[in-house]
Amino acid sequence: MHHKLQQLVTNKHQVLLHMIAYISEEERWYSVQEISQEIGLVERSVQRYTQLLYDLIAECNEANQSYFVLQMKKNRGVKLLIKQPTNVQCLTVHIYESDNTVKLLIDLLFGSYNSTQEYVRKKDLNAHSVRQSLSKIKAFLHTVELDVSVSGFRLLGDESQIRMIGYSLSWMLFQSEPWPEAFHKVDPFKINSAIDSLITTLHLDISHVRKRKLSYMVAINILRLRRGETVCYRADWEPYVPVDNMFELNKAVENLYQTFHIYSHEEVRFLVLNIMMKSFVYKVPHFKKKILENHRSTESDVLTLTNLAMREFDEKMCPIIPEDYESIYLYLFRSHLSAKVYKQADFDYSGHSFMDSIYADFVNYHERMTAFIHQLWLISQNSLFLEERYLIQVYIMVVSYTQMSLIFEPPLKISLQTDLSDIHEMRIREFICEQFKNNFNLKFLETDHSQIPDLILTNLTTNIVANSTMVIDYPLSHRDLFNLKTTLSKLKKQTT
């Protein structure tokens, strides 16, 4: 969702977002020249954007009671200081929330305007700039098979897709707020009371964060309903949710909605369907059994395809040990269910996406997994496996969970040549492998001259061999680790 939203905001905001992402990676000085090369602007422009960022940080600190400091020195560049519990996400969200196109999208989702002319008049905005923003939003929505009516000032397309955009966008933008202004027409105390009652009735164990996400989902459903936009429960979803009104989850959601005088059977089943995508409901053995039994009795494609994926994954990609089987199975089951309901979303319904980092950092995995998903499509001929961008992210979590996330990456051979004792060298090897176990497939060479190392690590400056050597200290400093990660990243790109 972050990547998609960046395409909506102004060029100025896009540059600031890129700049923030770059200088927040480490608490160090970044020279103007470094930043210039990273964001692709001349140094004079970087200096201008640095001043804009300084002003933006002051606004964010005042608005959100955050604590950011942008230090600037003529000969050193800039350094971003972040005081906990704040994180850099607060700055990026502040940019999104202040952007007129993002504000317009929020109003399309939850506002009560009947035409673009009414919106322009009541907001006292320039009609041309609003039309430009609507064009950007049309392009953004097109990627998830939605559109926007410019004259009618409403979103067009499958209401479930619109809800998914609402869930993702709202959670990303408003998760730190006591109660979002966009939700002001829904009483938060009434929502929380109704959800507390549901949790108590069903004996669910839900963290504060997951309860908050559920309250957002219910609020969005109510707001969309009050706009006259109802979910049409599709025929292909029928096998997923038990129709038995004695099923406690159905009854509890029905009671929740009745608190708000909502009596739509389709809305009840849609919320139950979304709750079935959450991990907390499977922690109750009775619900886990009931849900899976229903999928077996209806011969649902989600269950069949999860069985197929598990079998093929174990045989073709990497073995799944018995102790991990149920956790991985339920994770894939929930993810497949989400992929069947929400189309063309390369992020989950919380807005999280790891696609860019996967493609950049795990090129071989990306290629192997793309071929694997295509093979599942050939076997099943089911549209689930057309959701490739989403599934690539889902499946890498399985590979990572099995602690084999680097099995598809070529090994980087390292030779450790120091004047330290053997036990010190063993400790260095273990420490480096542990630090980078999720980033690189490292192989430390013994004193075997038959293999040429990709990198020599040494603590002796007299032992430097061309560009394949890096000098380290013991114990390794933060600077050593940063330089080592940078070097290994370059080597990895050369070998893939």
Describe this structure in words.
This protein has 496 residues and is of the alpha/beta class. The protein folds into four domains: 2-97, Orthogonal Bundle (Arc Repressor Mutant, subunit A); 99-278, no CATH class; 300-401; 412-495, Rossmann fold (3-Layer(aba) Sandwich), CATH 3.40.50. Helix content is 58%, strand content 7%. The chain is built from 21 helices and eight strands. It has helices spanning 2-6, 11-23, 32-39, 43-64, 89-98, 100-110, 116-123, 127-142, 159-174, 188-202, 208-226, 248-258, 265-275, 285-297, 301-317, 322-341, 355-361, 363-380, 388-401, 422-435, 478-495; strands at 68-73, 77-82, 147-149, 154-156, 412-416, 442-445, 455-458, 469-471. It has a four-stranded parallel beta sheet with strand order 6-5-7-8. Strands 1-2 form a two-stranded antiparallel ribbon. Helix 10 (188-202) runs antiparallel to helix 12 (248-258) and helix 15 packs across helix 18 (363-380).
Layout of helices and strands:
Elements: H1 2-6, H2 11-23, H3 32-39, H4 43-64, E1 68-73, E2 77-82, H5 89-98, H6 100-110, H7 116-123, H8 127-142, E3 147-149, E4 154-156, H9 159-174, H10 188-202, H11 208-226, H12 248-258, H13 265-275, H14 285-297, H15 301-317, H16 322-341, H17 355-361, H18 363-380, H19 388-401, E5 412-416, H20 422-435, E6 442-445, E7 455-458, E8 469-471, H21 478-495
Parallel strand pairs: 5-6, 5-7, 7-8
Antiparallel strand pairs: 1-2, 3-4
